[in-house]
Design goal:
Blueprint lengths: L1 H15 L8 H11 L1 E4 L4 E8 L2 E8 L12 E3 L8 H8 L1 H8 L2 E5 L2 E4 L4 E5 L13 H13 L2
Parallel strand pairs: 4-5
Antiparallel strand pairs: 1-2, 2-3, 3-5, 6-7
Length: 152
């Protein structure tokens, strides 16, 4: 019983300690923008790569040919499943047809590999549940992608 209490307290202490940063969010974002590179990856599709929290991350972005230049264009995030990939997800969803018809942009972000004592996978999204042991901040990754796409 004492061992469980000790482990619970230790875990609580570790998870409640958050590291601070002397950098503002704006300067971190500016660094990401400076390092982002996008290359053609198919019809109306680009693969954009950047460093996020010292990890190389990427996403595919599809912009319909028929897209209006309106500033308020809807954006669909299409997240692949556990162990899958953005490229494979893009290949079978056929969202591009719907995007052309309905004037919206699609982003296919790539999850990061997971390699812990409990499990491993070629890719995952850190949901905080069964991905325990993952320290990838996918919420911030998605927020960063939103900011990058907003500027395009």
């Amino acid at each position: 019983m004492k061992t469980r209490l000790f482990i619970a307290c230790y875990f609580l202490l570790l998870t409640s300690c958050s590291g601070g940063s002397s950098q503002s969010n704006n300067s971190i974002y500016e660094e990401v923008v400076a390092t982002e590179t996008c290359i053609n990856a198919g019809t109306n599709t680009k693969k954009c790569t950047f460093r996020h929290e010292n990890l190389e991350r990427f996403y595919y972005i599809y912009k319909p040919v028929s897209l209006s230049q309106n500033n308020n264009v809807p954006l669909l995030f299409a997240l692949h499943g556990y162990g899958s990939s953005a490229a494979f997800h893009k290949s079978y969803t056929q969202y591009e047809v719907i995007a052309e018809e309905n004037q919206f942009i699609i982003v296919y972000p790539q999850g990061y590999k997971l390699d812990t004592i409990l499990t491993n996978s070629s890719s995952h999204w850190n949901s905080g549940a069964w991905t325990i042991g993952s320290n990838v901040d996918d919420v911030d990754f998605i927020n960063t992608v939103i900011e990058l796409v907003e500027d395009k």
